[in-house]
Amino acid sequence: ALVGNYSGLACQPVWNNFVLRYHQDKNNVLRVVLSTMYSTGWVGMGFSRDGLMIGSSAMVGWMGKKGLPHIRQFSLRSKSGSKAAVVDRGFLVSNNHDHTVVVQQAKIYVAFQLKFSYRLSHQHIILAFGPGVPVKNKLSKHQDKTSFTFDFTTGKGFADGPFPYGLRRAHGGLNLFAWGILMPIGAILARYFRRMDPLWFYLHVGIQFAAFIIGLAGVVAGVALYSKIQADIPAHRGLGIFILFLGILQVDHSLIVLYYALMLWSMSRLMDSECCAKNC
Fold this sequence. Notes:
Blueprint: E1 10-15, E2 18-24, E3 29-37, E4 42-48, E5 57-63, E6 69-76, E7 85-87, E8 93-94, E9 100-104, E10 107-115, E11 122-130, E12 144-151, E13 156-159, H1 165-192, H2 199-229, H3 234-279
């Protein structure tokens, strides 16, 4: 059992009287023993991808009213309501047989093992506790909580600064406007307004180029946001890279077409002027 056998576990005080003992092996299995003072209620440790409570997954332990230990994973989906914390949901991969909760000398020890697909380094952690004993796996509102970034390779914790909401809005807004509005408008002009020659072509190229510049600004905002919160969302990042790649291809195609159109127009003007000179 993890509790009572701390051999090989690093020990780090993290918040108030919370102590984090942990070890991460070569297979990316993380062993954790979280301890703190305890009389009743629940104690939880959450793992967040962006530093926010909503969207995180937490391992929560408590002693039931009949003295039985409980530890479950919860998905934290909102700040309040019946579905704020959903039991047995979340992105943490674990084996229920490797979990245990022990109360000794007014201290609770919440022990669990988690399996990750990568080696944890800087990880957003949320610690919280509540006074009410969960009934039917329903968590009461927390009494207090904290969030910080913990480096599982060095054992150092860093206080999380204020979440950059403005940067997140800029990232989402710029990309939505560029790829979701301007790019389709440019495509519609090329498809349905060819009778307005050559105006449709210049509008098409101009709008596509503007969409690319705005979308690129959105990507830069996303990179800046990632550097601030170290969010680990590979699917989102991969989708963004793919869309940017398609945008580059689209703009390159439009610029190449514009180049040849201008070259043909220049050659046509030159030939017309030569014909006029010969006829005069």
